[in-house]
Structure formats: C-alpha cells, structure tokens
Amino acid sequence: VAFAMGLTESDPVICNTLAELKAALETESITYVQVGDIFDVVRDPIISNTSEYSIINAKGTKVLTLNGNAVVRQPIDGDYQIYSSLIGVDSGNVTIKGTGSLSFEPMFVSGLGYGSNATIDVRGGILNVESGTIKSIPTTIEKWGVAIYVQTGTLNISGGTFEGKTTFTDASVPGHSVAVDCRGGSINISGGIFEASNSNELDKFSPIGLDLNSKLSANITGGTFKGGISWDSDAVLNAFINNAAGGYDVYKNGTPM
Predict the structure, then answer these.
(1) What are the φ and ψ backbone dihedral angles of 211, each rounded to 5 degrees?
(2) Residue 127 and residue 154: Cα distance in Å, rounded?
(3) Mind listing the pLDDT tens digit for each residue in 83-114?
(4) pLDDT tens track for 132-148
C-alpha cells in the first residue's frame, strides 16, 4: 500500500490497483485514501456462491477520494467466487468524494437480492457520499447492478452520481432497475443524481432512481431522481422538494401517486 501513512488529507495512501485499494480500506489505521485508474477482473477461488461476500470490507474511518476511473469486473467464464458487492460497510464511517468514478460489473447470483450485485453494500455504520460517480453496470445479459444497497446503518448523500442497470432480456423477468436500493436504516439525501436503466422496457415502473422498500427512516430534501422514487407503506419520508429537472415521479407500492 504505497509509502504514505494515510493519516492526513495531505498524505493519502494512493491506490492504483485493486490489491492496494483492498489493503488500504481494510487497514483501520489508514484514514485517507485516493483512488486512481484501476481495471481488474477478480478471479478468486470459490468460498461459497450461496452467501453474500464483499471483495473489500471497509474498516474504521475512511475518506475515499476518487481521482480516476476504477473498474472492477467479475469474470464471465470459469469457476470463481461470485462476490455480493465490491465494498461492504459493516461498521465505522466511510466518506466518498472526488471527480472520478467507482464501478462494479457484477454477476447474477441466484437466490440473492439486489444486494448481491451492489458496488457498495451498507450493512451497518455510516456511508457518506459528497461527490464522485458510483455505478454498477453489468456488461453481459441477464444481470442486474445497484450502485448502493442499504441493509442497515446510515446513508448520507449530499452529492454525486449513482447509476444502476439491468440487462434482462427475458420478457417474463420484470427487469426492475434501481440506482440506490434501501431496505433499512436511516437515509438522508440532500443532493445527487440517481439514474437507472434497463434493457427490458416491459416493466413500466422501471427504472427507479431511488427505492425505499422496507422499514426505514428517510429524509429527502434534494436530488434529481431519473425514474422517480418508490417506497412501500413501511417507509417514513419527511420531506420532498422539486429538483432542477422540474420534479420527479413518486411511487408507493409500485403505484404512481
């Protein structure tokens, strides 16, 4: 992990490979991390393809600055471990900012939810996103990808761009595409651009920019949601405002309001 200590913002650990990024984010004593251009295809031996595993498990307090375009891809051939997400946040406090992007190209895992194909999976602790682009874009058919998936913990978004995509071609598959999918926790959004796309146009409720679909607390005071916001009866929303695009669609239990 380079020679910097990562203790101050002026002395970050600079990562230009996936191995360097994994080491930096999993070392609790490192706080400041910068990411350059990365392209890596992960070919790890199988641990289990029936449970959720992250390639990287962030530990401690982290400030991750995206300076380049980092792309991590799962292999489309061979018997390798299929990871549930690129970065898992189980505890601590992770902040993401910068002008670059972080992209995960996932593979489909039968029986696992959208969290099995997320660039960042929040399972506790706090994730703050101030700027940068986070996306999960499958490059092969019959896949889905979610930029951020929240199971529990806190998600604070004040800026940035979030992209998710499905590539299902079977008409019997709804093709539900979501940029940020929240199943629980505390959600606070004051800005950002949320955009999803899908190759199956038969699902009239897809794509969805932000999906709040479980027992959670959500405070939405800003943002641009291309495809709208969807939530079910268990979610609590405190505020909405119109965005620069002239407003957004809101769905409840899949029904336009």
Answers:
(1) -115, 120
(2) 6
(3) 888 999 999 899 999 999 999 987 755 544 44
(4) 999 987 766 556 778 99
Query: Cα–Cα distance between 27 and 97 in angstroms, integer?
Result: 19
Structure tokens that stand for 90 in this block:
């189980």
Give me the DSSP letters along 159-177: S-EEEEEE----TTS----
Task: State whether the Cα torsion 45-74-176-223 is positive or negative.
Answer: positive
Closest by CA to 73, choosing from 82, 61, 64, is: 82
**Helix or strand or coil: residue 77?**
coil
The tokens for 168 are 């299902």
CA angle (73, 85, 55) in 5-degree steps: 75
- 79 exposed, middle or buried (CB, 10 Å; 0-12, 13-18, 19+)? exposed
The answer to whether 222 touches 229, Cβ cutoff 8 Å, is: no
